[in-house]
Amino acid sequence: MAPTAQQYFSREPSVPDRRRTIEVSLRGVPTQVTTSTGVFSSSRLDLGTSVLLRKAPRAPMTGTFLDLGCGWGPIGLALAAESPQADVWAVDVNERAVDLCALNAKNLRRTNLHAVLDTDLDPDLRFDLIWSNPPIRVGKEALHALLLAYLPRLAPGGKAYLVVQRNLGADSLASWLRSALPAGFTVDRVASAKGYRLLEVIAPTTISPTTCFSDFSDTSSPSISSPSVTVADIATASQTPTAPDTVERPLTA
Asked: Mean pLDDT across the stretch 6-22?
């Protein structure tokens, strides 16, 4: 992968910080935001995130939410606007992305949105809702480590929605999640659009308080010893193989 394509994986992007204002539609609401070079999809709302925002069911009115891999903040901003009484956390490895997300939250008066680096997120937080356009191109092992570090942090009965491009392994990722997550977690494909799959992960309604996050790792992923594992473990980029289509379950709120 070209060095410029790796910038949004970096803690400190090496390209100059050239900011711009763009207008995007977040859950049907025209919104002006600030973006910059060195972050994911700096010139527009990317197609995968657009599919997530159009297809994911309405967020609960209250709770603790996570935007995993926030970039300049489209997912977190949408969640904060839709559920103003919820506590929304937006996390990224990229310092510039976190700064932009925080700036956009301030400018749009989304006071319930908190943008932080992955290393600064409280390891004891559990989430009622996780939305993510995960960084598929970081490589399969790094992606697996990332998902196993955060998905088990769903609160009992909590839900995660992940948007993944079909040609980059959405169906094989769903199959892997079914085998990698602990007993009681369910994984379904609930929507498809524009070549993307929307995957829904639901945590069991009862999760043992003695369960260790490290219990959720597998031998094919880097070691995960605690929920403080961060997206800074990103390695080289690779693509995940595709798998046959799965049965799509109707999406319900």
From this structure: 77
Residue 179 — φ and ψ, nearest 5°? -90, -25
Are the C-beta atoms of 23 and 32 separated by less than 8 Å?
Answer: yes
Q: From residue 98, give the alpha-carbon distance in Å to each of 53, 59, 60, 117.
A: 20, 22, 24, 6
Amino acid at 14: S
The structure tokens listed for 106 are 């301030």
| pLDDT tier for residue 200 given thresholds of 50, 70 and 90 | very high
What is the spatial distance between Cα 197 and Cα 56, in angstroms, rounded to a whole number? 11
As a whole-number percent, the residues of the chain with pLDDT over 90 amount to 69
What is the average pLDDT value for the chain, to the nearest integer? 83
Q: How far is it, in rounded angstroms, from Cα 229 to Cα 241? A: 25
How many domains is the chain partitioned into structurally? 1
pLDDT tens string 48-84: 999 999 999 999 999 999 999 999 999 999 999 999 9
Q: Which helix (H) or strand (E) holds 35?
A: strand 29-36
Question: Which pairs count as long-range contacts for 60-64, CB under 8 Å and 24+ apart, including other chains?
Answer: 60/86, 60/128, 60/129, 61/85, 61/86, 62/86, 63/87, 63/127, 63/128, 63/129, 63/155, 64/89, 64/125, 64/126, 64/127, 64/128, 64/129, 64/155
The domain spanning residue 221 has which CATH number? Answer: 3.40.50.150
Query: Strand pairing partners for 116?
Result: 91
Q: Which range marks the domain in which residue 37 is found?
A: 21-233
Instruction: Indicate whether 247 belongs to any domain.
Output: no
